[in-house]
Prior knowledge:
single chain, rod-shaped, five-stranded mixed sheet, Heat Shock Protein 90, about 400 residues
Amino acid sequence: MPDFEAKYTEGKFRLAWRLCIILASLFTVMGFIEFFHSIANGILYLICASIPGLELVYLYKTKNSRIAYLSLCSFGSILTAVSLHFFINEVHLGDFIWMALISIMAFWGLGNFWGWFFTVLNFLISLSYFFCSLKTNFEVIRPIDFTLQASLAVEIMAAYIAIAAIVSQFVKYYRYSFESVLSNNLVIKESNRIISSKNEENIILMKEVHHRVKNNLQIITSLLRLQKQTMPEDAQPKFEEAINRIMTMSLIHRKLYQSADFTRIDIGAYINDLIREIVQSHSVNDNVKAEIKSEYNKIGLNSIVPLGLIINELLSNSFKHAFSNGKSGAINVEISGGPGNTFYLKYSDTGIWIDEDREGNSFGLDLIATLTEQLEGSFTRSGSSYHFTFNNQDSNT
Length: 397
Protein backbone atom coordinates (compact mmCIF):
# COMPACT_ATOMS: atom_id res chain seq x y z
CA MET A 1 0.00 0.00 0.00
CA PRO A 2 2.90 2.54 -0.07
CA ASP A 3 1.85 3.77 -3.54
CA PHE A 4 -1.73 4.18 -2.30
CA GLU A 5 -0.62 6.33 0.66
CA ALA A 6 1.67 8.36 -1.55
CA LYS A 7 -1.21 9.11 -3.93
CA TYR A 8 -3.41 10.13 -1.01
CA THR A 9 -0.75 12.49 0.42
CA GLU A 10 -0.08 13.96 -3.01
CA GLY A 11 -3.82 14.49 -3.54
CA LYS A 12 -4.18 16.38 -0.27
CA PHE A 13 -1.21 18.59 -1.11
CA ARG A 14 -2.49 19.42 -4.61
CA LEU A 15 -5.93 20.26 -3.25
CA ALA A 16 -4.49 22.48 -0.51
CA TRP A 17 -2.45 24.33 -3.14
CA ARG A 18 -5.49 24.89 -5.38
CA LEU A 19 -7.72 25.97 -2.49
CA CYS A 20 -5.16 28.54 -1.37
CA ILE A 21 -4.99 29.97 -4.91
CA ILE A 22 -8.79 30.08 -5.19
CA LEU A 23 -9.24 31.72 -1.77
CA ALA A 24 -6.41 34.21 -2.18
CA SER A 25 -7.75 35.27 -5.58
CA LEU A 26 -11.34 35.46 -4.33
CA PHE A 27 -10.68 37.61 -1.29
CA THR A 28 -8.37 39.91 -3.23
CA VAL A 29 -11.09 40.59 -5.82
CA MET A 30 -13.73 41.01 -3.10
CA GLY A 31 -11.45 43.36 -1.15
CA PHE A 32 -11.12 45.72 -4.15
CA ILE A 33 -14.86 45.55 -4.79
CA GLU A 34 -15.72 46.32 -1.15
CA PHE A 35 -13.30 49.29 -0.99
CA PHE A 36 -15.85 51.22 -3.11
CA HIS A 37 -18.49 50.71 -0.41
CA SER A 38 -16.76 50.04 2.91
CA ILE A 39 -13.07 50.43 3.68
CA ALA A 40 -13.49 48.17 6.75
CA ASN A 41 -14.94 45.38 4.58
CA GLY A 42 -12.19 45.85 2.05
CA ILE A 43 -9.49 45.57 4.72
CA LEU A 44 -11.17 42.46 6.16
CA TYR A 45 -11.20 40.74 2.76
CA LEU A 46 -7.59 41.64 2.11
CA ILE A 47 -6.66 40.14 5.49
CA CYS A 48 -8.59 37.06 4.44
CA ALA A 49 -6.61 37.00 1.18
CA SER A 50 -3.28 37.21 3.03
CA ILE A 51 -3.89 33.99 4.96
CA PRO A 52 -4.09 31.62 1.96
CA GLY A 53 -1.32 33.68 0.34
CA LEU A 54 1.00 32.93 3.26
CA GLU A 55 -0.10 29.28 3.16
CA LEU A 56 0.99 29.11 -0.48
CA VAL A 57 4.49 30.18 0.54
CA TYR A 58 4.49 27.65 3.39
CA LEU A 59 3.33 24.84 1.09
CA TYR A 60 5.97 25.71 -1.48
CA LYS A 61 8.76 25.54 1.11
CA THR A 62 7.67 22.61 3.29
CA LYS A 63 5.35 20.46 1.11
CA ASN A 64 3.37 19.86 4.35
CA SER A 65 -0.34 20.24 3.66
CA ARG A 66 -1.60 19.38 7.17
CA ILE A 67 -0.57 22.72 8.70
CA ALA A 68 -2.14 24.50 5.73
CA TYR A 69 -5.50 22.74 6.25
CA LEU A 70 -5.42 23.39 10.01
CA SER A 71 -4.57 27.06 9.46
CA LEU A 72 -7.25 27.60 6.80
CA CYS A 73 -9.93 25.92 8.93
CA SER A 74 -8.93 27.79 12.10
CA PHE A 75 -8.69 31.26 10.55
CA GLY A 76 -11.79 30.55 8.47
CA SER A 77 -13.84 29.76 11.58
CA ILE A 78 -12.49 32.84 13.40
CA LEU A 79 -13.20 35.18 10.47
CA THR A 80 -16.68 33.75 10.02
CA ALA A 81 -17.47 34.36 13.70
CA VAL A 82 -16.10 37.92 13.45
CA SER A 83 -18.14 38.59 10.32
CA LEU A 84 -21.40 37.31 11.81
CA HIS A 85 -21.13 39.22 15.11
CA PHE A 86 -19.25 42.43 14.29
CA PHE A 87 -20.38 43.26 10.75
CA ILE A 88 -24.04 43.51 11.72
CA ASN A 89 -25.24 45.44 8.68
CA GLU A 90 -23.84 42.95 6.13
CA VAL A 91 -25.68 40.22 4.22
CA HIS A 92 -24.23 36.96 5.53
CA LEU A 93 -25.36 34.55 2.80
CA GLY A 94 -21.82 33.42 2.09
CA ASP A 95 -20.74 32.83 5.70
CA PHE A 96 -22.77 29.64 6.10
CA ILE A 97 -21.41 28.25 2.83
CA TRP A 98 -17.89 28.95 4.16
CA MET A 99 -18.78 27.00 7.30
CA ALA A 100 -19.76 23.99 5.18
CA LEU A 101 -16.53 24.37 3.20
CA ILE A 102 -14.48 24.46 6.44
CA SER A 103 -16.06 21.20 7.69
CA ILE A 104 -15.50 19.42 4.36
CA MET A 105 -11.94 20.71 4.16
CA ALA A 106 -11.20 19.54 7.74
CA PHE A 107 -12.57 16.06 7.12
CA TRP A 108 -10.54 15.70 3.93
CA GLY A 109 -7.26 17.27 5.02
CA LEU A 110 -7.14 16.56 8.77
CA GLY A 111 -9.25 13.46 9.42
CA ASN A 112 -12.41 12.61 11.35
CA PHE A 113 -11.45 14.17 14.69
CA TRP A 114 -10.73 17.63 13.31
CA GLY A 115 -13.59 17.33 10.85
CA TRP A 116 -16.08 16.87 13.69
CA PHE A 117 -14.28 19.47 15.79
CA PHE A 118 -14.73 22.23 13.20
CA THR A 119 -18.27 21.06 12.39
CA VAL A 120 -19.31 21.44 16.04
CA LEU A 121 -17.41 24.74 16.34
CA ASN A 122 -19.15 26.28 13.34
CA PHE A 123 -22.48 24.88 14.51
CA LEU A 124 -22.02 26.77 17.81
CA ILE A 125 -20.99 29.93 15.93
CA SER A 126 -24.18 29.67 13.84
CA LEU A 127 -26.36 29.20 16.95
CA SER A 128 -24.79 32.21 18.62
CA TYR A 129 -25.57 34.31 15.52
CA PHE A 130 -29.19 33.15 15.36
CA PHE A 131 -29.87 33.90 19.02
CA CYS A 132 -27.64 36.96 19.51
CA SER A 133 -27.21 38.89 16.24
CA LEU A 134 -29.84 37.76 13.73
CA LYS A 135 -32.60 40.19 14.76
CA THR A 136 -30.29 43.20 14.83
CA ASN A 137 -28.72 42.13 11.53
CA PHE A 138 -32.12 42.08 9.78
CA GLU A 139 -33.06 45.49 11.21
CA VAL A 140 -29.90 47.31 10.07
CA ILE A 141 -28.91 45.31 6.97
CA ARG A 142 -27.28 47.47 4.29
CA PRO A 143 -29.14 48.28 1.07
CA ILE A 144 -28.62 45.73 -1.66
CA ASP A 145 -26.92 47.55 -4.52
CA PHE A 146 -24.84 46.35 -7.48
CA THR A 147 -21.62 46.32 -5.45
CA LEU A 148 -23.16 44.03 -2.86
CA GLN A 149 -24.69 41.83 -5.54
CA ALA A 150 -21.34 41.48 -7.30
CA SER A 151 -19.51 40.80 -4.04
CA LEU A 152 -22.00 38.14 -2.96
CA ALA A 153 -21.98 36.50 -6.39
CA VAL A 154 -18.19 36.28 -6.45
CA GLU A 155 -18.05 35.04 -2.86
CA ILE A 156 -20.69 32.31 -3.22
CA MET A 157 -19.42 31.12 -6.60
CA ALA A 158 -15.89 30.87 -5.23
CA ALA A 159 -17.14 28.93 -2.24
CA TYR A 160 -18.99 26.54 -4.54
CA ILE A 161 -15.87 26.12 -6.68
CA ALA A 162 -13.82 25.31 -3.57
CA ILE A 163 -16.40 22.74 -2.42
CA ALA A 164 -16.53 21.25 -5.90
CA ALA A 165 -12.72 20.97 -5.94
CA ILE A 166 -12.75 19.03 -2.67
CA VAL A 167 -15.56 16.73 -3.82
CA SER A 168 -13.79 16.20 -7.15
CA GLN A 169 -10.56 15.29 -5.37
CA PHE A 170 -12.46 12.92 -3.07
CA VAL A 171 -14.14 11.18 -6.02
CA LYS A 172 -10.78 10.88 -7.79
CA TYR A 173 -9.16 9.44 -4.68
CA TYR A 174 -12.11 7.07 -4.13
CA ARG A 175 -11.88 5.78 -7.68
CA TYR A 176 -8.14 5.30 -7.36
CA SER A 177 -8.56 3.46 -4.07
CA PHE A 178 -11.33 1.29 -5.57
CA GLU A 179 -9.18 0.44 -8.58
CA SER A 180 -6.23 -0.28 -6.25
CA VAL A 181 -8.38 -2.65 -4.20
CA LEU A 182 -9.56 -4.44 -7.34
CA SER A 183 -5.99 -4.69 -8.61
CA ASN A 184 -4.71 -5.96 -5.27
CA ASN A 185 -7.57 -8.46 -5.09
CA LEU A 186 -6.56 -9.84 -8.47
CA VAL A 187 -2.95 -10.12 -7.31
CA ILE A 188 -4.03 -11.82 -4.07
CA LYS A 189 -6.35 -14.16 -5.98
CA GLU A 190 -3.54 -15.18 -8.30
CA SER A 191 -1.15 -15.57 -5.36
CA ASN A 192 -3.71 -17.74 -3.57
CA ARG A 193 -4.13 -19.84 -6.68
CA ILE A 194 -0.36 -20.37 -6.90
CA ILE A 195 -0.12 -21.13 -3.18
CA SER A 196 -3.04 -23.55 -3.41
CA SER A 197 -1.42 -25.27 -6.36
CA LYS A 198 1.90 -25.51 -4.51
CA ASN A 199 0.11 -26.76 -1.42
CA GLU A 200 -1.59 -29.51 -3.41
CA GLU A 201 1.77 -30.47 -4.89
CA ASN A 202 3.30 -30.54 -1.40
CA ILE A 203 0.44 -32.69 -0.11
CA ILE A 204 0.94 -35.17 -2.92
CA LEU A 205 4.71 -35.12 -2.29
CA MET A 206 4.28 -35.66 1.46
CA LYS A 207 1.82 -38.49 0.87
CA GLU A 208 4.30 -40.10 -1.48
CA VAL A 209 7.14 -39.69 1.05
CA HIS A 210 5.14 -41.26 3.87
CA HIS A 211 3.90 -44.00 1.53
CA ARG A 212 7.44 -44.86 0.44
CA VAL A 213 8.78 -44.81 4.00
CA LYS A 214 5.91 -47.02 5.11
CA ASN A 215 6.56 -49.46 2.26
CA ASN A 216 10.29 -49.53 2.96
CA LEU A 217 9.73 -50.21 6.65
CA GLN A 218 7.26 -52.96 5.79
CA ILE A 219 9.83 -54.52 3.47
CA ILE A 220 12.35 -54.39 6.31
CA THR A 221 9.96 -56.07 8.73
CA SER A 222 9.14 -58.73 6.14
CA LEU A 223 12.84 -59.44 5.57
CA LEU A 224 13.45 -59.57 9.32
CA ARG A 225 10.58 -62.01 9.79
CA LEU A 226 12.08 -64.23 7.09
CA GLN A 227 15.46 -63.93 8.76
CA LYS A 228 13.86 -64.78 12.11
CA GLN A 229 12.90 -68.23 10.86
CA THR A 230 16.57 -69.09 10.38
CA MET A 231 17.58 -68.03 13.88
CA PRO A 232 17.73 -70.18 17.01
CA GLU A 233 14.37 -70.47 18.75
CA ASP A 234 15.55 -68.73 21.92
CA ALA A 235 16.65 -65.67 19.91
CA GLN A 236 13.42 -65.32 17.93
CA PRO A 237 11.39 -63.45 20.62
CA LYS A 238 14.04 -60.71 20.81
CA PHE A 239 14.07 -60.48 17.05
CA GLU A 240 10.28 -60.18 17.07
CA GLU A 241 10.53 -57.31 19.55
CA ALA A 242 12.83 -55.43 17.17
CA ILE A 243 10.42 -56.13 14.31
CA ASN A 244 7.50 -54.72 16.37
CA ARG A 245 9.44 -51.54 17.05
CA ILE A 246 10.02 -51.04 13.33
CA MET A 247 6.36 -51.87 12.70
CA THR A 248 5.38 -49.19 15.24
CA MET A 249 7.16 -46.53 13.19
CA SER A 250 5.79 -47.94 9.93
CA LEU A 251 2.29 -47.63 11.31
CA ILE A 252 2.88 -43.93 12.01
CA HIS A 253 3.76 -43.28 8.36
CA ARG A 254 0.76 -45.31 7.23
CA LYS A 255 -1.53 -43.16 9.39
CA LEU A 256 0.05 -39.98 8.06
CA TYR A 257 -0.34 -41.22 4.49
CA GLN A 258 -4.05 -41.84 5.11
CA SER A 259 -4.59 -38.52 6.89
CA ALA A 260 -5.30 -35.10 5.41
CA ASP A 261 -3.23 -33.50 8.18
CA PHE A 262 0.46 -34.41 8.13
CA THR A 263 1.17 -32.74 11.47
CA ARG A 264 -1.31 -34.56 13.71
CA ILE A 265 -2.31 -38.19 14.26
CA ASP A 266 -5.57 -39.59 15.61
CA ILE A 267 -3.99 -41.24 18.63
CA GLY A 268 -7.00 -43.42 19.44
CA ALA A 269 -7.12 -44.99 15.98
CA TYR A 270 -3.33 -45.35 16.01
CA ILE A 271 -3.31 -47.31 19.29
CA ASN A 272 -6.14 -49.55 18.06
CA ASP A 273 -4.17 -50.44 14.94
CA LEU A 274 -1.01 -50.90 17.02
CA ILE A 275 -2.78 -53.38 19.30
CA ARG A 276 -4.13 -55.29 16.32
CA GLU A 277 -0.65 -55.55 14.79
CA ILE A 278 0.89 -56.74 18.06
CA VAL A 279 -1.90 -59.27 18.58
CA GLN A 280 -1.14 -60.69 15.15
CA SER A 281 2.62 -60.75 15.81
CA HIS A 282 2.17 -62.56 19.14
CA SER A 283 -0.36 -64.98 17.63
CA VAL A 284 -2.82 -64.52 20.48
CA ASN A 285 -6.55 -64.73 20.29
CA ASP A 286 -8.62 -61.58 20.47
CA ASN A 287 -9.70 -62.47 24.02
CA VAL A 288 -7.89 -59.39 25.24
CA LYS A 289 -10.09 -56.30 25.01
CA ALA A 290 -8.62 -52.84 24.75
CA GLU A 291 -10.31 -49.75 26.10
CA ILE A 292 -8.78 -46.56 24.72
CA LYS A 293 -9.72 -43.06 25.81
CA SER A 294 -8.05 -40.11 24.17
CA GLU A 295 -9.02 -36.52 24.89
CA TYR A 296 -5.79 -35.10 23.52
CA ASN A 297 -5.43 -34.65 19.77
CA LYS A 298 -2.40 -32.36 19.55
CA ILE A 299 0.25 -35.03 19.18
CA GLY A 300 2.49 -34.51 16.15
CA LEU A 301 5.52 -36.12 14.60
CA ASN A 302 8.07 -35.08 17.23
CA SER A 303 6.05 -36.70 20.01
CA ILE A 304 4.24 -39.57 18.32
CA VAL A 305 7.33 -41.66 17.47
CA PRO A 306 8.68 -41.94 21.05
CA LEU A 307 5.11 -42.20 22.39
CA GLY A 308 4.28 -44.99 19.93
CA LEU A 309 7.42 -46.90 20.89
CA ILE A 310 6.57 -46.55 24.59
CA ILE A 311 3.06 -47.89 24.01
CA ASN A 312 4.51 -50.69 21.87
CA GLU A 313 6.80 -51.75 24.76
CA LEU A 314 3.92 -51.64 27.23
CA LEU A 315 1.64 -53.67 24.96
CA SER A 316 4.37 -56.20 24.21
CA ASN A 317 5.06 -56.65 27.92
CA SER A 318 1.37 -57.16 28.62
CA PHE A 319 0.96 -59.80 25.92
CA LYS A 320 4.17 -61.58 26.95
CA HIS A 321 3.77 -61.50 30.70
CA ALA A 322 0.11 -60.87 31.54
CA PHE A 323 -1.85 -62.62 28.79
CA SER A 324 0.38 -65.50 27.80
CA ASN A 325 -1.08 -68.95 27.15
CA GLY A 326 -4.41 -67.56 25.94
CA LYS A 327 -5.38 -65.74 29.12
CA SER A 328 -8.17 -63.21 28.75
CA GLY A 329 -8.35 -59.72 30.18
CA ALA A 330 -8.36 -56.02 29.32
CA ILE A 331 -5.89 -53.29 28.53
CA ASN A 332 -6.72 -49.71 29.47
CA VAL A 333 -5.04 -46.76 27.78
CA GLU A 334 -5.98 -43.16 28.60
CA ILE A 335 -4.38 -40.02 27.17
CA SER A 336 -5.38 -36.60 28.47
CA GLY A 337 -4.11 -33.05 28.36
CA GLY A 338 -2.38 -31.32 31.25
CA PRO A 339 -1.40 -27.73 32.08
CA GLY A 340 0.69 -25.88 29.52
CA ASN A 341 2.34 -28.21 27.02
CA THR A 342 2.07 -31.34 29.14
CA PHE A 343 -0.08 -34.40 28.56
CA TYR A 344 -0.63 -37.64 30.46
CA LEU A 345 -0.60 -41.33 29.54
CA LYS A 346 -2.16 -43.91 31.86
CA TYR A 347 -1.64 -47.57 31.01
CA SER A 348 -2.73 -50.70 32.84
CA ASP A 349 -3.85 -54.27 32.20
CA THR A 350 -5.91 -56.77 34.17
CA GLY A 351 -3.66 -59.76 33.53
CA ILE A 352 -1.60 -61.80 35.98
CA TRP A 353 2.08 -61.11 35.40
CA ILE A 354 4.66 -63.84 35.23
CA ASP A 355 8.46 -63.57 34.96
CA GLU A 356 8.10 -59.85 35.76
CA ASP A 357 11.59 -59.46 37.17
CA ARG A 358 13.55 -61.61 34.82
CA GLU A 359 16.70 -60.12 33.37
CA GLY A 360 15.41 -59.95 29.81
CA ASN A 361 12.65 -57.57 30.80
CA SER A 362 15.07 -54.82 31.80
CA PHE A 363 15.80 -53.67 28.24
CA GLY A 364 12.15 -52.80 27.66
CA LEU A 365 12.03 -50.78 30.87
CA ASP A 366 15.29 -49.05 30.01
CA LEU A 367 13.91 -48.18 26.57
CA ILE A 368 10.72 -46.79 28.14
CA ALA A 369 12.82 -44.66 30.50
CA THR A 370 15.00 -43.38 27.63
CA LEU A 371 11.97 -42.49 25.45
CA THR A 372 10.31 -40.78 28.42
CA GLU A 373 13.38 -38.59 28.85
CA GLN A 374 13.22 -37.79 25.14
CA LEU A 375 9.71 -36.42 25.77
CA GLU A 376 11.02 -34.48 28.79
CA GLY A 377 8.72 -36.49 31.04
CA SER A 378 8.59 -38.85 33.96
CA PHE A 379 6.62 -41.91 35.00
CA THR A 380 5.62 -43.98 37.98
CA ARG A 381 4.91 -47.70 37.98
CA SER A 382 2.83 -49.89 40.22
CA GLY A 383 2.80 -53.50 38.99
CA SER A 384 1.39 -53.37 35.49
CA SER A 385 0.02 -49.82 35.89
CA TYR A 386 1.98 -46.87 34.54
CA HIS A 387 1.34 -43.16 34.86
CA PHE A 388 3.37 -40.95 32.49
CA THR A 389 3.71 -37.19 32.30
CA PHE A 390 5.12 -35.88 29.01
CA ASN A 391 5.99 -32.51 27.52
CA ASN A 392 4.50 -32.11 24.06
CA GLN A 393 7.40 -31.62 21.64
CA ASP A 394 5.02 -30.37 18.92
CA SER A 395 3.38 -27.57 20.88
CA ASN A 396 5.39 -24.85 19.09
CA THR A 397 5.36 -26.37 15.61
